[in-house]
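User: quick one
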Amino acid sequence: NAGVTQTPKFQVLKTGQSMTLQCAQDMNHEYMSWYRQDPGMGLRLIHYSVGAGITDQGEVPNGYNVSRSTTEDFPLRLLSAAPSQTSVYFCASRSSDTQYFGPGTRLTVL
Amino acid sequence: LAKTTQPISMDSYEGQEVNITCSHNNIATNDYITWYQQFPSQGPRFIIQGYKTKVTNEVASLFIPADRKSSTLSLPRVSLSDTAVYYCLVGGALVGFKTIFGAGTRLFVKA
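Assistant: Done. Structure below.
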């Protein structure tokens, strides 16, 4: 049981490039979400999903897309990277009362 | 969504009990209170959750007064490894979805 896994661990992009952050969970959780965390700040919710085929926006969705074709996977796409998207990205899945977070992806946009 | 207020930072020494209080004046009737711990370069980790009175597990205790407008996370006999950021979250039974993470409380445990 690997829990929540994220790839890559680190990524450097140039402004305007696109990429997909991968997230997978093997706990059969329906609910998954993406957060970003800027230095010294708390986590901000980007997008979330309550099940395969269902996604919704969080607090800071602009510049990001998500899809949920399977229960296990919840990728986050950056359409055209901007320096303001430099952050650490955490994926999480949850059971009825507990969220389980992945190890994070540290993204730098130059 | 209920807003929470926590101290920005706290210092303690090894072996002491640490109490971190969170204010949530506009908590709703069906809201639960959940605390997470985050170490540097890691995702947050669930510590404890409660609705009223007192909850205890192997890691911490959570005290919630009758009016539920605040809660206190109690960490008994902290060690250096308890140095982390602690977040108080308030939300429905499915807390964590569209719940706002504040800046948290940075606890620094000294030898």
